[in-house]
Design brief:
Radius of gyration: 14 Å
Order of helices and strands: EEEEH
Structural class: alpha+beta
Shape: extended
Distance between the termini: 35 Å
Helix content: 25-40%
Largest sheet: 2 strands, antiparallel
Strand content: 15-25%
Strand order of the largest sheet: 1-4
Number of domains: 1
Number of strands: 4
Number of helices: 1
């Protein structure tokens, strides 16, 4: 896959007591394979959780 591959942006916007909390994921995964909510909650958040666990175990 080259740099000219199609991309899509998945956005999650919240407004919390502390203020705006926008988040964005840019991906080449198709909408047919991953619905926006699932992509954010099940793939992106899981990846962040795993990165945090690896960092915690290394330090």
């Amino acid at each position: 896959m080259g740099s000219d591959a199609p991309r899509r942006v998945v956005a999650k916007a919240e407004h919390l007591a502390k203020g705006h909390n926008p988040r964005f994921v840019v991906t080449s995964l198709s909408a047919q394979a991953h619905a926006a909510g699932d992509l954010y909650e099940k793939v992106h958040c899981a990846r962040g959780d795993m990165e945090n666990r690896l960092s915690a175990s290394a330090g």
